[in-house]
C-alpha cells in the first residue's frame, strides 16, 4: 500500500498527473466554496488543497502513515480512513480525493465517513475513471504485462480504479443521495505537456458529447437520515443576512 501511495504522489508530478490535478483543484474550489458548517476534513492526497476555498472555522488534512512520510508534505492529522478520530455525526464536510482507490478497504472507508458526517453532511469523492481513454490505455498495458510483452503503465499502480456507476451504487447502499457528478480530462492518453496542450480542444467536445468518458470524475453525495429535517432558524427573514455573514470564517489551507 505504501508503494501505491508513493506511486500516485509521483504520478501527480507527470504531465497527465499535473493536468488532472489542475482540473480537480478547480472542481474542488468550486464545489466546497459555499458548503457551510463548522468542521471539514480532507482524507489524503496532500498535493490537492481541497479545502482552501472553504470557509469553515475548523479544517483538517488527515494522512495515513505512508502519506505523512512523503517529502514536502506539511504536518497533518495522522489517521487511517477506516478509523477516523472523530465522534459520530461530528463533521459537516469530508473530501476523499483518490482515497478509495488507495484504500485496502474502500467499503469500510465509506462507512466510516458516513459515521462521522452529520445528517445532511456532504462527501466529495474524486477518482480516475477506468472507462476513459486514459483508463483503456492502462488496461491495455496491464494486459501486455500479463502476456509478458512489456507495456508501460500510463496511470499509477493503485489497484482497480472505481467506476462512477459502481461508486454510485456503494453510496446509495449506505444511504447517501447523489447530488452531482463532474467529468473532466478528455484529452488522449499522451505523456508530454506539448501533446496535452495540442489536444486541449477535446475538453470542450468531450464535456458536451461524451461526458462520462472523462479521465477524472468528482462525485458529491449528501448523507440522508430518515426522519431528520433541517429546521430554519427562528429569526425574521430580515435578520438572515446578518446571520449569514457571521458564518464566514477566515480562509486558510487544509490543515491550517
CATH class placement: Alpha Beta
Q: Residue share in helices?
A: 25-40%
Architecture in CATH? 3-Layer(aba) Sandwich
Order of strands, widest sheet: 3-2-1-4-5-7-6
Class based on secondary structure composition and strand pairing = alpha/beta
Number of domains: 1
Order of helices and strands: HHEEHEEHHEHHEHHEH
CATH topology term: Rossmann fold
What gyration radius follows from the Cα positions, in whole Å? Answer: 19 Å
Task: Report the mean per-residue pLDDT as an integer.
Answer: 85
Q: What is the CATH superfamily label?
A: Vaccinia Virus protein VP39
Percent range for β-strand residues = 15-25%
The number of distinct β-strands equals 7
Unreliable runs: 232-256
Explain how this protein is built:
By secondary structure, the chain is an alpha/beta fold. It has a single domain (2-228), classed as Rossmann fold (3-Layer(aba) Sandwich), CATH 3.40.50.150. Helices cover 37% and strands 19% of the residues. The chain is built from 10 helices and 7 strands. Strands 3-2-1-4-5-7-6 form a 7-stranded mixed sheet, with helices on both faces. Mean pLDDT is 85; it is low at 232-256.
Amino acid at each position: 500500500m505504501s508503494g501505491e501511495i508513493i506511486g500516485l504522489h509521483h504520478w501527480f508530478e507527470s504531465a497527465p498527473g499535473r493536468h488532472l490535478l489542475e482540473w480537480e483543484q478547480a472542481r474542488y474550489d468550486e464545489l466546497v466554496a459555499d458548503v457551510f458548517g463548522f468542521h471539514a476534513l480532507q482524507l489524503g492526497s496532500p498535493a490537492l488543497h481541497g479545502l482552501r476555498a472553504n470557509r469553515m472555522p475548523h479544517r483538517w488534512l488527515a494522512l495515513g502513515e505512508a502519506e505523512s512520510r512523503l517529502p514536502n508534505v506539511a504536518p497533518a492529522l495522522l489517521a487511517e480512513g477506516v478509523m477516523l478520530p472523530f465522534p459520530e455525526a461530528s463533521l459537516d464536510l469530508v473530501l476523499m480525493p483518490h482515497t478509495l482507490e488507495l484504500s485496502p478497504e474502500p467499503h469500510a472507508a465509506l462507512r466510516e465517513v458516513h459515521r462521522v458526517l452529520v445528517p445532511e453532511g456532504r462527501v466529495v469523492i474524486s477518482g480516475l475513471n477506468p472507462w476513459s481513454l486514459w483508463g483503456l490505455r492502462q488496461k491495455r498495458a496491464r494486459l501486455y504485462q500479463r502476456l509478458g510483452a512489456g507495456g508501460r503503465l500510463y496511470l499509477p499502480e493503485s489497484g482497480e480504479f472505481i467506476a462512477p456507476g459502481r461508486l454510485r451504487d456503494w453510496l446509495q447502499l449506505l444511504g447517501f443521495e447523489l447530488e452531482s457528478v463532474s467529468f473532466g480530462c478528455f484529452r488522449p492518453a499522451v505523456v508530454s505537456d506539448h501533446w496535452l496542450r495540442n489536444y486541449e480542444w477535446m475538453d470542450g467536445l468531450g464535456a458536451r458529447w461524451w461526458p462520462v468518458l472523462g479521465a477524472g470524475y468528482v462525485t458529491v453525495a449528501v448523507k440522508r437520515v430518515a426522519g431528520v429535517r433541517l429546521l430554519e432558524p427562528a429569526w425574521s427573514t430580515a435578520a438572515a443576512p446578518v446571520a449569514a455573514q457571521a458564518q464566514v470564517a477566515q480562509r486558510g489551507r487544509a490543515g491550517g
